[in-house]
Amino acid sequence: xxxxxxxxxxxxxxxxxxxxxxxxxxxxxxxxxxxxxxxxxxxxxxxxxxxxxxxxxxxxxxxxxxxxxxxxxxxxxxxxxxxxxxxxxxxxxxxxxxxxxxxxxxxxxxxxxxxxxxxxxxxxxxxxxxxxxxxxxxxxxxxxxxxxxxxxxxxxxxxxxxxxxxxxxxxxxxxxxxxxxxxxxxxxxxxxxxxxxxxxxxxxxxxxxxxxxxxxxxxxxxxxxxxxxxxxxxxxxxxxxxxxxxxxxxxxxxxxxxxxxxxxxxxxxxxxxxxxxxxxxxxxxxxxxxxxxxxxxxxxxxxxxxxxxxxxxxxxxxxxxxxxxxxxxxxx
Length: 332
Prior knowledge:
This protein is of the alpha/beta class.
C-alpha cells in the first residue's frame, strides 16, 4: 500500500454569468479601473446574482461537470470534500447538500475550512485517503461565494473577490504519476491581519455587529502581502529541493490567485517564467478555495501526462503550503 500514489484524473468548473467589471465597481465604491489593475491586476470578476442560490449551486455545477467529463457514475464516488468559507448555512455541512443533490449514495463527506489554502489542504487529505488503499474515487470541490462577505464600501478589499467553483476527481495513480510531495503549514498568530470579526460563537450576529460591518472579510493588505510572498515562495523552493528538481524542470506553477503582484513576486523568487504560471485572476478575481481548481479547469487542454506541477497557496489562518505532482493525463 505504501507505493500507492494519488492523482487528479478530471477537472470541472463553474463561474457565474454576471460579470462585475472595474468600471461598474468604481460606480459603487471610490476606486478606478486604473487603480485596481495597477494594485491588484484584476479587470473583472464573476458574481452569482440569482436569487435563492448560494455556494452549493456553484459546487453542484462543477461536480456534475467533472462527473460527466470523466464518465463517472455518482455511485462510484466514496468520499467528497467541500472546501469553502461561504457555506449555504452553518449546519448541516454543505458537502451533505452537494451529495444529496448529485446522488452520491455510497459516499461520506465533510466541509474543510482553510480559506484560500482550502483546496491544497483538501488535496493533501484526499491523497492520504487514496494512499491508505481503502479509497478509489474521491471528489474535491473548492467553492466560494465571496460576494456575500465582501464589503462593497471598502475600496481596499471589495475589488479582490469573485464567485466560482472548481472540482476534481482524485484516484490511484498509474505510471508513477500523481502527487509526489507536499509541505503544509499554519501560523495562527496571523489571524489578526486576515479574518472576519463576527458571525461565530465569539461575536454572534447582532444589530451591533451588522451595523459595524463585522460580517465582511477584514484584511491588512500590506502585512498579508509580505507573508504570502515569502511563505509561498519558501515552501515551493523547499519542495523542489526535496525532490531534486529546479525551476527549469517545472512545467507549470499553479499559485493561489490572490493578487497579481503576489503571483509575480512568487514566480520571480522561484525563478519560473510567466509563461509557465497559470493565471486567471484578471478575469475571475480571488475566488478563495476555488482559485486553484479553476486554474486547472482553464488550463486543462494545455496539460500533458507527466507535466511537473507545483501548486502553492496562502490564506487566512495564516495557512499555506505547496504540493508537487506529476499530471496524470493529457488534457482535452
